[in-house]
Amino acid sequence: MNRSLRRPYPRVRTGTAFSCGGNQGWFPDGNFRRCGCGVVACADALLYLQGVGELTREAYFAHVAALRRDFPLIPRRGIDGLRLALGMNRCLRRAGLPYRARWCTSGARFWDRLGAMLADDLPAIIAVGPNFPRLWGREGVTLYRLAEGGGYVPAERVRAHFLTVTGLDGGWLRVSTWGTERYLRRADYDGYMRRQSAALFTNLLLLQKI
After folding, report:
1. pLDDT at 16 over 80
2. How many CB atoms lie within 10 A of CB 98?
3. Which fold, 9-209?
C-alpha cells in the first residue's frame, strides 16, 4: 500500500530556513515543550486542511496560541487521544471545516483507516503511546532519517508522543515531528502496539468528512 498527501505539508519559515511542520520545542512554556506534541500535530493538520502551505514562525505561534484553550495539557502528562479528538472537533467546527475527529481504540483496522485517510488527502495523526501496563517503562519506537547516500539511519526513539503521517510506502511511514521529516517502520509500530503499549493509547486520530 502506497499513499501520500497530495499537497505540500505546511512548513514554517525562520529566516531562510524551513521546517516540516511545527515544533513544540520552539515554545517558551516548559510544559508545552515537554507535552505539546499533540497540539502541534493538530495545529499542523488544521493548516493543511485550510490550504496553508507556508507561514512565518511568528504567524505559527499566533496560530497555536489561538488553539491552546481547546487542548488543556495536564502538567508532565500532556493530553490523551480521546481529549485530543474533542479539542480537534472544536477547532474544526470553529474553522467551518467539514470533518469530524474521533480516537480509534481498535487496532484491527488501523492500517486500513490510515491508508484511507491519506488516499482522501487527510493528514493522519498517530500516537506512540506510553508503555502499558508498565507505565513506568522506557521502551520506545525508533524514528529514522534518510542518509545522504540512501537508506535509513536511526535518529531517535519516542514514546508517549504524537506525530503526523504524511505518507505510507510499503513498510515505512513518512512522518512529521519536531519540525523535521522522519521515517517509522510499520513493523516496529505494530510490535510496540502489541507488546509494549495497547491500542487504546497507540492508535490513530481518525478524520472523516461529514
Report:
1. yes
2. 9
3. Cathepsin B; Chain A (3.90.70)
